[in-house]
Amino acid sequence: MKTVIIGANHAGIAAANTLLDNYPDQKVVMLDQNTNLSYLGCGTALWVGRQIDSYENLFYTDKSAFEAKGAVIRMETTVEKVDFEKKIVFCRTKDGASFEENYDKLILATGSLPIAPTLPGSDLKGISFLKLFQDGQNVDRQISDPNVKDVAVIGAGYIGVEIAEAAKRRGKNVRLFDVAPTSLASYYDPWFAEDMDKNLAAHGIELHYGERATAYKGTEHVEAVVTDKGEYKTDLVINAIGFLPNNALGKDHLECFRNGAYKVDKHQKTSDPDVYAVGDCATIYSNALRAETYIALATNAVRTGIIAAHNIGGTTLDAIGVQGSNGISIFGYNMVSTGLSVAAAQKNNMSVEYTDYEDLQRPGFMKENAKVKIRIVYESDSRRIVGAQMASTEDISMGIHMFSLAIEEGVTIDKLKLLDIFFLPHFNQPYNYITMAALSAK
């Protein structure tokens, strides 16, 4: 059995390792157009902001590791097309040489591409994106230039907020733009996002929300960002608007979701029974929505790669769905969420209620302490939990995993009211904020 994997980052790596480690009858061929693999892009801002010493440890494996397991891995190789009827992948090396790979099963792990609106001046130098390791190198090189003083970040999602922090830590004047009224609007309701905005502003980042970039100005290099509300001097633009699935190879053959992602079943199989799709190029099942959706996260990529590989190898393994759990830490302020915010639920025509609570992490007599705020979102009729958000300067991240499981299992808000949560002053309050939030629900 020969499986060809197109794409050798998180999803493709997880699939390859699963096949190589568990199914000795599998011949695995990996194809990727990049020079490197396994780059943890979530660490780019830490490296650019010099919160870690270097980028070397952001790679967790390499080509030789797969060759040692018996895989054929071809880097710097472009897949030009796939003949799905004849099961042939047509490839070209960096030197221009063409070759073909036939397959029994094909895994598409082609990931996503940055959204790049075609604006006047978008071809100027000094306009960057953040996706690949090379993108991070490029941004780091420019931020290291003492002549780069003003940085404009377009998009206040996770990547935009993180790179804005990084640029500020490097002593730059930073402006953060987004059409939404707050940062992180896709993940957090305003009660949380507005606290993050206060945090950003307190650290000197200039916020421009409800503002859309319309053009870039300059001669050869970008010199200004033009929006629907003004014009701003800049030496560097970092675009972090979002991502779309990279579906170029299969969009004319495979059934796709409304945003172009390949539709897959619970085994990661596409509409072609010999083709699987994993990671950011594929749909995923949301347990909060109880419907197919699109959530581009590295954790989802790894899970889907494992699922596809086991099913190809002969072990039936069903996907159990995801909640889209995520988190962010900016200038020491931590926010975590899972499932749906109130805004996201309403956008999906769900009738929901929510309960909020705010308290200290530990009893007031403890010297080390901080406020914690929590929101639990639940369906109006069924009362099942569909989302949760938490924030604090404390590390409250592990709490969100309980809510992730609650959403997966369909737990109701009432079930949490008398949940057995231990108390010890070192850790929490006798009346835990999770319990208090649940008790405060309608």
From TrEMBL:
Domain Pyridine nucleotide-disulphide oxidoreductase dimerisation, chain residue ranges per copy: 332-428
Recorded family membership: Belongs to the class-III pyridine nucleotide-disulfide oxidoreductase family.
Keyword set includes NAD: yes
Protein known as: NADH oxidase
Record carries keyword Repeat: no
Superkingdom of origin organism: Bacteria
Keywords: FAD, Flavoprotein, NAD, Oxidoreductase, Redox-active center
Enzyme Commission number, as recorded: 1.6.3.4
Reaction catalyzed: 2 NADH + O2 + 2 H(+) = 2 NAD(+) + 2 H2O
UniProt cross-references to SUPFAM superfamilies, sorted A to Z: FAD/NAD(P)-binding domain (SSF51905), FAD/NAD-linked reductases, dimerisation (C-terminal) domain (SSF55424)
Organism listed in the record: Claveliimonas bilis
Cofactor(s) listed: FAD
Native organism taxonomy: Bacteria, Bacillati, Bacillota, Clostridia, Lachnospirales
FAD/NAD(P)-binding domain span: 2-305
